[in-house]
Amino acid sequence: xxxxxxxxxxxxxxxxxxxxxxxxxxxxxxxxxxxxxxxxxxxxxxxxxxxxxxxxxxxxxxxxxxxxxxxxxxxxxxxxxxxxxxxxxxxxxxxxxxxxxxxxxxxxxxxxxxxxxxxxxxxxxxxxxxxxxxxxxx
Length: 138
Prior knowledge:
Strand content: under 5%
Radius of gyration: 23 Å
Helix content: 55-70%
Largest sheet: none
Order of helices and strands: HHHH
Distance between the termini: 42 Å
Structural class: mainly alpha
């Protein structure tokens, strides 16, 4: 976790530096662009906030918070449970396609959204309830 904290400090500092360069170039240009400046600045602020949080967790919990932080750690020392994922499920692919259609509809035309939102709802329901149908029904 200490390494994550250091990486977040580094990433936050780079975002703040890039934000300063962006501000300088934006002021030299004829049209001032605020959205990019705000986006890069808030990204830097988020990284610095996470770096501070991880640093405080390391201080309060001790040096070896994660198994990855210890030099003598083995692979088995990490968390064995990372979640349950269906290797054969097609619902995440369909859900991604439906989400892409919703975003495409927001960018292009509202009639695509009217078609994509019901498809998105069907995909979410199908993914949530896939283990309550067929061979897995109780």
